[in-house]
Specification:
The complex is a heterodimer of chains A (318) and B (259).
Chain A: E1 2-7, E2 9-10, E3 13-14, H1 16-27, E4 31-38, E5 55-60, H2 69-83, E6 87-91, H3 94-107, E7 110-121, E8 124-131, E9 136-142, E10 147-151, E11 166-169, E12 182-188, E13 201-205, H4 215-225, E14 228-231, H5 233-237, E15 258-262, H6 268-274, E16 279-284, E17 297-300, H7 303-317
Parallel strand pairs in A: 1-4, 1-6, 4-5, 5-11, 6-10, 7-10, 13-14, 13-15, 15-16, 16-17
Antiparallel strand pairs in A: 2-3, 7-8, 8-9
Chain B: E1 2-6, E2 9-11, E3 32-34, H1 36-52, E4 56-62, H2 67-77, E5 81-85, H3 95-109, E6 113-116, H4 128-136, E7 140-150, E8 153-160, E9 163-170, E10 173-177, H5 189-195, E11 200-203, H6 216-219, E12 222-228, E13 237-240, H7 245-255
Parallel strand pairs in B: 1-4, 1-6, 4-5, 5-11, 6-10, 7-10
Antiparallel strand pairs in B: 2-3, 7-8, 8-9
The chains are: A alpha/beta (318), B alpha/beta (259).
The structure holds flavin-adenine dinucleotide (2 copies).
Amino acid sequence: MKTLVFLETVDGKLHAGSLGVLSRAAKLGGEVAGVVIGSGVAGLAEGAGAYGAQVVYVADDARLESALPQPRVDVIAGLVTAQGFDNVLFAQSVLASDLAAGLAARLEAGVNWDLAGVEERGGELIGTRAALGDSVYVEVAWKGTPRIGIVRSGTYAAEETGGSARVENAAIELQDFSTAAVLVSQDRAEQSGPSIEEADIIVAGGRGLGAAEHFKLAEELAEVLGGAVASTRAVVDAGWYPYATQVGQTGKTITPKLYIGLGISGAIQHKVGMQGSGTIVSINKDGHAPIFDYSDLGIVGDLHTIVPKLVELLRARG
Amino acid sequence: MRIAVCVKSVPDAGSARRIDGGTKRLDRSADGVLNPYDANAIEEALRIQEATGEGEVVLVSLGPEKALDGIRKGLAMGADRVVLVSDDAAAGSDLVATSYALAKALERENADLVLFGQQASDSDGAVLWAAVADRLRRPLISQVAELTVSGSSVTGKRQTENGYDTIQAPLPAVVAVSDAINEPRYPSLKGIMGAKKKPQDIVSLADIGAEAGRAGEAGSKTTVLTLSPPPPRGDSKKIEDDGTAAEQIVAFLEEKKLL
Ligand SMILES: Cc1cc2nc3c(=O)[nH]c(=O)nc-3n(C[C@H](O)[C@H](O)[C@H](O)COP(=O)(O)OP(=O)(O)OC[C@H]3O[C@@H](n4cnc5c(N)ncnc54)[C@H](O)[C@@H]3O)c2cc1C
Ligand SMILES: Cc1cc2nc3c(=O)[nH]c(=O)nc-3n(C[C@H](O)[C@H](O)[C@H](O)COP(=O)(O)OP(=O)(O)OC[C@H]3O[C@@H](n4cnc5c(N)ncnc54)[C@H](O)[C@@H]3O)c2cc1C
């Protein structure tokens, strides 16, 4: 089997998530290569050898500077066609997901997403994953090659094994439509402020709070419990609460002893950031909200009546 | 401006979602509803239409005929018509097959802007747009939380793992919006009544010039081998608030020694 792993770069470094997938790919056996795409990234390629890549292909070009998927589809499709890779693996990210799906269409190849494991069985690649909000576990496969897989973030740790890689240039032939979208500006997230990753107790607020000012409820509850306040993407995108407090796929991963969710539906992308919490309590007025599927205590009710009373009771306890 | 919004009918959130052990496909016997995330895309399309005072909003979907029952909500919100690709040969389509058939239907519509919702609530893929954009050979902006359309281009602000990016693309383009982009309107009674009379075209794969062998299970490149239940969770309980929820939370936290 010949496997190619997309090595995403962030701030001039190879992203740990994609190195984790590379470490896993190296254990599948057969040939393992990585591909690094960007502008001024050639120097990063060799470093992937330590994580198991035998060859690292580099596409270094000013037109590839922005982290946009479409020109990367052009590069990887060319590489897969030229080198005949059987597997193309990605560590899940906003960029990698769009890239993998675009590549699937370009190469008429199957893509399985949200993989929590990949293994080789009799020359075939088999993926394991959860589906339907993790309510069922599934083994999946591909018809034909290349097989494209998107591995859920945090699944595999990067393991340095100390090898070295041969670096080769990949051909860069970009389609007109692939370079039509351009990055106009970038607003790097403000990471200062209290860290939600250190807190033992997290009170997380979602869109069910109803308005930015109602985050006060979450703050009061967090204060009386001695915890910190976290949030969902929906409220961060809406400007209700800072990005630095977002938990989930594109936010932070937290493992507090206690997580209390207020008005949070429990979408899979939020869950992946908080499922390691010790005890999960949630308040949601919709009895069908997915968060109840993984709460230790689920309260079906209106947070606006329950939370003030809860704060009062906890204050009275002292 | 013509805006095509891709929409999907999904099992009602109230129904227990399960994968059929025999077909290894999602059990779709429950009533279908409009994928809640698609309401944001429809709302955004309607706002663009209202702002420019012209154009058309067409809903495009691939699914069984009964999907119309759920999708009609989009017409009630204000969309102008529906094109539903429905064909026995399209059943069981994975991403590659779905994007193929959908792109064929979209080519016929020749829209200036193709909009997608954040994700399908039954599969949580959040990727279909990228496959469709590649097939249509159009620029893509995904995860858009703020969208502006001006003249011949679109600009979207979106969140990634590293903060916010603002991306611009010339029209025609493909844009996938996030669920924070707007608050979808509720259909009015008048809208619901009027929806029934709006054009709702059910077309076959042949009608849109799609090869049956590239759609459905035949055209799919992924398979499900086995299904198994997840590892059991420890004790968990769910209670309806009867006025004592706060007390019950305190008692629970005390019992768990978390206070
Ligand atoms: C690529 C990608 C990455 C993503 N990354 C993240 C991420 O990092 N983190 C993240 O959180 N999300 C992420 N998302 C978004 C995720 O899919 C959901 O859209 C989001 O988590 C929803 O946030 P929410 O629960 O606050 O809002 P909603 O889903 O709108 O839920 C609000 C809930 O509040 C309840 N409610 C309303 N009023 C009340 C009340 N008075 N009392 C009690 N309950 C009430 C409702 O019943 C509802 O369940 C991502 C999505 C994609 C596609
Ligand atoms: C539990 C589950 C897991 C699956 N896993 C995989 C997998 O790993 N690989 C794979 O190839 N297929 C998979 N499928 C099949 C896949 O979901 C369908 O082929 C689907 O139509 C394609 O993408 P999506 O549903 O993930 O859409 P998403 O990418 O999540 O949906 C985004 C948007 O696309 C639009 N959209 C989605 N479906 C349609 C449609 N039928 N018609 C029109 N517009 C639509 C909507 O605007 C929606 O908001 C899975 C299905 C289920 C139920």
